[in-house]
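Q: I'm building a small set of examples for a reading group on sequence design. Run inverse folding on the following structure and report the sequence directly after it, with nothing in between.
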């Protein structure tokens, strides 16, 4: 055997020396900007951070924005005795600051902990609760009728509702945290945070397939059947163009914190989990056959004569063909540690945009609460409803048409 082919034997000291030298070389390479940067995703990370979603438009950007790695939701209550002018001024300030932050620029007087971070696809979406409209002596549209109670709900009223709801999404948690901090700081004296929750999705580049449907903490693909802007009647189903003028181009947002009973779910076999959902766990394909995006065949039978997608399967009960309605879903997983009983305090921050919750979320949830087998493995713990007004032009501000009419 030649010297070149003889295996080298490293002592522990020699191995440490070799790895230390490699580490120094890696750092030096990174500083020099050579190929080592690709090991750490340097260029990709810069691209993610530089991505910008324009703030202005007919619709508020967070409604149609692509999935983000981080989603935070905060509800604010206005302080007692606040005037219409003060709330309007807050909307002007928030709009100004949101334009800056979504462009990756600092707001006035901000020495930003996000300094050096790009916009990271930040979106800031604001909605008005029925309680705010009443405080402003504004008409409360029928679409803001309170969401009814459902079986198995265990709602915490201190973490529900609110005068103003703010959805913040981005691909960097620092950017989201900073944006919420900036908004809450400028709201002092006019509004204060009532409650806040944060969730996450897969970060860019983590999934093997680019643009793959996210999975929730149950391990299921989540969001396959979401309507797309290119679908017929998408705008009519999601946007409230037949409501008050200030809502034209806007939408109604339902927020729910849904805890998953993961320990109970994990006791089920994979086959049984698939039957509860109505999809294969590995591919997301419906049990009626095909691939993830194959339409459901709700009439297909197995060789034994039973329905391929069972009567109580989640996808059957939630499908538009069954419920007769459509919503645009956004979801973020959350994991807030463990409860006193040892069970995970984890689940889904569920958001649904629609043109009228009475004929959207409420109708679907009434079916799910009564007939969906998945309901045995989840608990709805928080709930809120907001009217998300239309988007802004570069010189306008959030809710401008509403305040002009007051």
């Amino acid at each position: 055997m030649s010297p070149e082919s003889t295996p080298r034997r490293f002592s522990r000291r020699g191995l440490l020396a070799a790895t230390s030298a490699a580490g120094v070389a890696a750092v030096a390479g990174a500083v020099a900007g050579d190929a080592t940067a690709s090991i750490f995703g340097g260029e990709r990370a810069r691209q993610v951070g530089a991505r910008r979603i324009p703030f202005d438009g007919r619709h508020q950007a967070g409604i149609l924005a692509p999935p983000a790695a981080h989603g935070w939701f905060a509800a604010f209550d206005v302080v007692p005795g606040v005037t219409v002018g003060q709330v309007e001024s807050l909307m002007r300030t928030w709009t100004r600051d949101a334009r800056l932050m979504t462009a990756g620029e600092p707001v006035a007087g901000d020495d930003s902990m996000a300094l050096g971070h790009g916009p990271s696809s930040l979106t800031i979406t604001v909605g008005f609760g029925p309680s705010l409209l009443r405080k402003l002596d504004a008409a409360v549209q029928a679409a803001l009728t309170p969401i009814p109670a459902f079986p198995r709900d265990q709602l915490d009223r201190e973490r529900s509702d609110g005068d103003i709801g703010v959805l913040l999404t981005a691909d960097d948690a620092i950017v989201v945290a900073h944006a919420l901090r900036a908004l809450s700081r400028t709201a002092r004296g006019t509004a204060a945070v009532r409650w806040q929750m944060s969730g996450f999705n897969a970060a860019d580049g983590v999934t093997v397939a680019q643009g793959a449907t996210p999975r929730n903490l149950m391990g299921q693909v989540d969001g396959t059947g979401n309507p797309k802007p290119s679908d017929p009647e998408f705008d009519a189903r999601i946007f409230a163009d037949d409501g008050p003028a200030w809502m034209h181009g806007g939408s109604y947002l339902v927020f729910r914190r849904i805890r998953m009973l993961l320990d109970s779910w994990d006791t089920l076999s994979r086959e049984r989990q698939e039957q509860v959902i109505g999809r294969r766990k590995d591919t997301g394909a419906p049990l009626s056959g095909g691939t993830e995006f194959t339409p459901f065949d709700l009439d297909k039978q197995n060789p034994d004569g039973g329905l391929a997608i069972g009567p109580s399967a989640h996808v059957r009960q939630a499908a538009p063909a069954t419920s007769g309605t459509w919503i645009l879903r956004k979801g973020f997983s959350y994991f807030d540690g463990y409860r006193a009983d040892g069970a995970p305090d984890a689940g889904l921050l569920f958001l649904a945009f629609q043109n009228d919750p009475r004929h959207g979320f409420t109708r679907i949830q009434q079916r799910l609460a009564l007939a969906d087998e998945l309901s045995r493995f989840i608990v709805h713990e928080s709930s809120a409803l907001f009217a998300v007004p239309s988007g802004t032009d570069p010189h306008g501000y959030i809710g401008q048409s509403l305040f002009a009419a007051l």
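Residues 47-405 form one domain.
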